[in-house]
Each structure stands twice: as C-alpha cells, then as structure tokens.
Amino acid sequence: MNFIKLFKQLTYRHNSYDIFRDFVMLSGFSIQNSILKCEQIEAEYMAIIGKYNREEANIFAKLLAELALGLASEMGDFLGEVFMSMELGSARLGQFFTPYHLSKLMAQVTIGDKVSMLSDKPFFTVSEPTCGAGGMIIAVADSLLESNFNPTESMWVEARDLDGVAAMTCYVQLSLLAIPARVVTGNTLTLEENRVFYTPQHYLGNWSYKLNKYWSKEDVKDCDKEIIITEDIPTLENSLIENEDVSIEAFVPAEVEQGENFSLF
Fold first, then answer.
1. Phi, psi at 108, each rounded to 5°
2. Number of domains in the chain
C-alpha cells in the first residue's frame, strides 16, 4: 500500500503513533477550515505542522491524497485498517478497530428493513456512540449504496468517541466520503462535548434545515425526539464563515418530510 510506504518515510525521525495522530488532526483541521475559516483551528494546525520540516510536511499532503484515492476506489475503513496493520492500537486504552468485513455484516443486520422506509421517507438519522474510526458508519453507507440509495442524501449521522484521535479519524473519513455528520469528541454517557466538527456535506446539503424541519414536525413522537441530540447545530449564519461569495439561499432545498433514527451500539 502506497499510503504505508509514504507513512514510513516519516518514521525515521518521529514516533509512528505521533505521525498518525498528527496526520488525522492536520487533515481534519484542513477540511474543517475549508468551511469555517477559524483562526483557532488554523493556530492548532500551525502548531502541529511546525514540528516537521518542509519535505515531511509535503508527505502529509501526499498521505491525504492517497487516503482520498483509496476511499474513492473502494469504500471501507481505510484508516482503521492502517491503524491496526501498523499495530498502533493500545490494549490499555482499548483502541482496537473492528475489521471492516465484520462492520459490514453488523451494518447489514442493523439496518435490515430500515432501508425499505426510504421508499416513502427522504432520510434517516444514525447515532453511533462509540464511533472509533467510523467503520460501522461507513459500512451502513456502503450497504445503502448496494441498495441503490445515496448515503449523502439518505442518512445523517451523529458520531461520538471519547478519544480525540479516533473521533478525528472518523471525521476525516466521513468528510472524504461526503457523509453528512456531526462528529463529537466527548463522553457518550455524560454527554460532555470537548469538540464538535461537522462534515462539509452537512453544510453543503443544508442538513441543519432538514433536521430542524424534522424536529419541528408535530407528529414526531416524544420518544423519537430523545433518540439523538440535534440541538445547537450551526447554521451558515453562525458557523464563522467569512466568505462573502457564499450564498445562504443556495443551501436551502425544497421542503423535506419526516426522517427516522436508529442507533448503532
């Protein structure tokens, strides 16, 4: 795999886990700031990349390109498999990612007849409380594609993980796969949130509008409203976007009907 060959070029001067962590953080910051233009995120990016020389910094750019090409050629948990193949997991922290073929099997069982509801509903929402690198979410998207549904339009995801590296790994992969999602670094049990990133497709698909339409429906049951947290979803007006060329109206689609939610656990 060309990704691993490039990765190993950085290991002469740096620890492998530190390289992986820095790669996903740099990639995540780059993707997020393509939308938000946030100075704090930019400062975090510069603090990390400052540890590497120019040649090494160029390798990170090539790694991101290899990741994008890999996900485009075959949907799967690319970074999760890299993480495990390079033995970067920690038994102490329980950092082991589920093999993708198992995630795919679990996803097919989990969504089951949920796919059939898309015949009269435009989308469903997915809650993944321990997302890791995002393998289960990617597997659900993969299963939707096999059923001739576009996951970019048919599902919205809330993903959480206590580990910041895992959450950012998930964010990067979902972003490159154009999956609309809210990715949280935080504790699922206490609902503490340390960092929240939205994938570009969340903004491009105007999912704040779609979800607000869903939750404002009078016929949505109270128990359904408790399944997934969708409060405080940023709109284009308050998301720190400073580019005057962006038109808010361009993000407003036709009215959508009620969606449904299920949980991956």
1. -65, -40
2. 2
Look at 12-26, 53-67, 97-111, 179-193 and tell me which has the smallest mean pLDDT.
97-111
Give dist(CA 110, CA 92) in Å, integer. 29
* 95 belongs to a structural domain: no
Instruction: Measure the CA–CA gap between 5 and 53, rounded to whole angstroms.
Output: 18
Residue with tokens 């049990």: 189
Query: pTM, whole model, 2 decimals?
Result: 0.80
- Residue 211 structure tokens: 């979800």
The residue segments making up the domain with residue 120 are: 100-263
Same domain, 251 and 151: yes
pLDDT in tens, 129-147: 999 899 999 999 999 988 8
